[in-house]
Amino acid sequence: MGSLKAVITCVNAYVPDYILTNKELETLVDTNDEWIRTRTGIEERRLLKGEGKGTSELASQAVLGLLEKSGTDPLDVDLIIVATVTADMHFPDTATITAHKTGMKNAFGFDLSAACSGFLFALTTGARYVESGNYKKVIVVGADKMSSIMDFEDRSTCILFGDGGGAVLLEPQESPYGFMDSILHSDGAGEQYLHMKGGGSRYPSTHETVDKKMHYLFQDGRPVFKAAVKGMSSSISALLKKNALSPDDISWIIPHQANKRILNAVADYLDFPIERVAINIEKYGNTTAATIPICLWEWEKKLKEGDNLILTAFGGGFTWGAIYIKWAYNGNNN
Ligand code: UT7
User: Fold this and answer.
1) 101-139 pLDDT, tens per residue?
2) What is the pLDDT of residue 3?
3) Counted domains in the chain
4) Distance, CA of 312 to CA of 231 (rounded, Å)
5) pLDDT tens-place string over residues 136-193
6) 221 C-alpha to ligand 1 centroid (Å)
7) In what order do the strands lie in the sheet with 138-145?
8) What residues contact residue 150 under an 8 Å CB cut-off, 6+ apart?
9) For a surface tag, which of 113, 121, 220, 303 has the fewest beta carbons within 10 Å of its beta carbon?
């Protein structure tokens, strides 16, 4: 018997049907399929279409599937945390809206904003609730409708992002498996390189903020690229060292999907085989807080009880870090 652990007992994700291909992007901005593939690894991404549909739609679809797949009564869920930077609105929070849409009448919820690292921060937070012994079923979601903050006239950003949502169920178990450790960081000096300025309390929405395109994501890609490689590599190294693990002990790295070249560089730096890095950026692009749970969902069938996983991310803030998980079940049993 081990101590009380927060164990991921189920994972699910949802991506919208509409596929935006590199070819279609060629009709919108001065870009080409070859540049996008070679510089980022992205081939297509999904977009959520439809009037009045926000991130809670992506989160709710992922959660409804999770409840069904795990046989969980929505009334038994204690807490839902939604990591997102594209909340439906300033308030109420998207977690509370999602709880309402999915019938979780007894749950409380809140959003967590840490950009592309949001799922790591939310999973660490959710695990602490579960480990306390007071919360039996906690759902952690990463969901973003990035198309809502994309400038489809800016080729440097609109080719990168997509929409999607993923969710995991955390439950307490006396187990050697589950959430083992995490190392998380933030540094506000990164604000200048990656942000969306308009619509917050510093620059409330006005005609001027709209005219100046301040309601779109801004990114200065090169410094972010360098910081992402350094941040993910160093947090993984530190986490391995802290837990007396070597790269050989790790079955999979499940990383945030921002750029395939970043993932190659991180694997090189760690001397970790790229074949054991989960990569699906070609299908979905960068879905911000959703990349890791979508990737876990796609990799679930390959995962085995006892596998050591490292989740890692880097994003706006800057925020970054890594989580060490011992996976608790054989994926092919599902
Ligand atoms: O998830 C949050 C964290 N975000 C990241 O980790 C993203 C990190 N950054 C990146 O992944 C890369 O910096 C980008 C993919 C955003 C850009 O790739 P890059 O290799 O850094 O390109 P660049 O911005 O240095 O631009 C190189 C050239 C420029 O042309 P010149 O000045 O050399 O003539 C750009 O204008 O590529 C041009 N370019 C494009 N060309 C065709 C930029 N975007 C495009 C495009 N199509 N879409």
Assistant:
1) 999 999 999 999 999 999 999 999 999 999 999 999 999
2) 82
3) 2
4) 9
5) 999 999 999 999 999 999 999 999 999 999 999 999 999 999 999 999 999 999 999 9
6) 6
7) 4-14, 163-174, 138-145, 79-83, 108-112
8) 157, 158, 161, 216, 217
9) 220
Residues 138 and 53 in one domain: yes
Q: Are 328 and 304 in contact (CB under 8 A)?
A: no
Query: Are 150 and 263 within one domain?
Result: no
Q: Calculate how far, in angstroms, residue 193's C-alpha sits from the geometric centre of ligand 1.
A: 13
Ligand 1: which of 34, 39, 155 to mutate, most ligand atoms within 8 Å of CB?
39
Question: Nearest residue CA, atom 47 of ligand 1?
Answer: 31
Alpha-carbon dihedral sign for residues 56, 173, 177, 5: positive
Residue with tokens 């009880």: 305
Tell how far the Cα of 286 is from the centroid of ligand 1, in angstroms. Answer: 14
Tell me the CA distances in angstroms from 311 to 68, 103, 199, 259, 307, one per residue in order. Answer: 25, 30, 31, 16, 13
| Ligand 1 mean position, distance from CA 310 (Å) | 27
Are 128 and 191 in the same domain?
Answer: no
Same-domain status, 167 and 197: no
133: left (phi over 0), alpha (psi -120 to 50) or beta: left
* Ligand 1 first shell, C-beta below 6 A: 31, 35-36, 39-40, 116, 155-156, 159, 221-222, 224-225, 228, 258-259, 262, 286, 314-315
Asked if residue 318 and residue 228 are part of one domain, the reply reads yes
Out of 158, 176, 194, pick the residue that ends a domain: 176
Which residue's structure tokens are 């949502």? 165
Task: Provide the domain limits for residue 64.
Answer: 4-176
Distance CA 328, CA 158 (A): 37
